[in-house]
Amino acid sequence: MLTVSAYAATRADGPLEKVGIERRDLGPLDVLIEIKYSGICHSDIHTARNEWGGTHYPVVPGHEIAGVVAAVGSEVTLHEVGDRVGVGCFVDSCGACDACTSGDEQYCTKRVVQTYNSRIGDGEYTMGGYSTHIVVTEGFVLSIPDGLALDVAAPLLCAGITLYSPLRHWGAGPGKQVAIIGMGGLGHVGVKIAAALGAEVTVLSQTLSKQDDGLRFGAHHYCATSDPATFKALRSRFDLILNTVSVNLDIDLYMSTLAVNGALVELGLPEKPIRVSGFSLASNRRSLAGSMVGGIAETQEMLDFCAEHGIGAEIEVIPADRINEAYDRVVRSDVRYRFVIDAGTF
């Protein structure tokens, strides 16, 4: 067993604290990763503060991991010592169900093992990327292309694939009108990817305060949803809308901007159930759907695509002792656009 430094939440109403945790011995198919950077996702905060329920303490968050291979098991063939690698939201699945065999491991019907807070044994739970090292089975380790710096690549392991997967699934590309609701940690990456795919991209944000950034990231239009005239002007326009915010919106209002056969896809997780009128769905044969992250192969495809197109997250790198401050700032939306922890400071 390897003892490493980490930051853990020990209770819902307390700060994250520096601790020592055990990483398992290297198995034949395992990869030991020296973590260089770990992104802060809002999901980390929800889990650390038990806002979704089901948190087992102590919990070490972090599922946006970028680092370098430090050692490999005797049967590893996919990675070598010194390789630049990443780990996303899950580290194992059954490998046999229809979802797994079709490359959608994230929807495994038997046992998705999340990177943190997933039970893996009697009283044992996975511990995430807020640490100096992690051990992961080789099939769930991604290669980070040389064209991507590790710090800006880290958030792509969650934020990037969360946007890339639905954009690909719903056919975003040339000739398609795509809207991104929200210009935060998820939305800003979505704008970059959708534009690189060739779609005509519109940002739907409450105000125009981030308009310059949105246009710089590749958006063609930027609209304030606080202006009632916006929805009239955009009626029946979009083929695809990706909702990246976690608050409960007036979904019927946004559905009115979908073209025939258009889809609104929920990526954020609002606290209360989503309400939508049947008329909103029936009109224009619209769809309301949801999406999670992508499978391993699709995540690798996303990383390669981002390297090819020069896409990385907009980040603020922080030392580990500022994690709690960063959490409070994320809740206040006081970051442009993603915090990344320098794991060398643990």
Structural account:
The structure is a single chain. Strands 3, 4, 5, 10, 11, 18 and 19 form a seven-stranded mixed β-sheet that branches. A six-stranded parallel β-sheet has the order 14-13-12-15-16-17, covered by helices on one side. The radius of gyration is 20 Å and the shape is globular. Helix 4 (159-169) crosses helix 5 (187-196). The model has no long low-confidence stretch (mean pLDDT 96). It contains eleven helices and 19 strands. The protein has helices spanning 42-48, 98-101, 150-153, 159-169, 187-196, 211-217, 229-233, 251-255, 278-282, 296-309, 323-331; strands spanning 2-9, 16-23, 30-39, 65-72, 84-87, 90-92, 113-114, 119-121, 124-125, 133-137, 142-143, 177-181, 200-205, 221-224, 238-243, 258-266, 287-290, 315-318, 338-342. With 346 residues, the chain is an alpha/beta fold. This is alcohol dehydrogenase (NADP(+)).
Features:
6-stranded parallel beta sheet, 7-stranded mixed beta sheet, alpha/beta, 346 residues, 11 helices, single chain
- Helix/strand order, N-terminal first: EEEHEEEHEEEEEHHEHEHEHEHEHEHEHE
The number of strands is: 19
What is the 3D shape?
globular
Arithmetic mean pLDDT: 96
Percent range for β-strand residues: 25-35%
For the largest beta-sheet, the strand count, sense and barrel status come to: 7 strands, mixed
What is the CA–CA distance across the termini?
Answer: 19 Å
Count of alpha and pi helical runs = 11
Tell me the Rg in angstroms.
20 Å
Low-pLDDT windows of residues: none
Proportion of residues in helical segments: 10-25%
Q: Based on helices, strands and strand pairing, what is the structural class?
A: alpha/beta
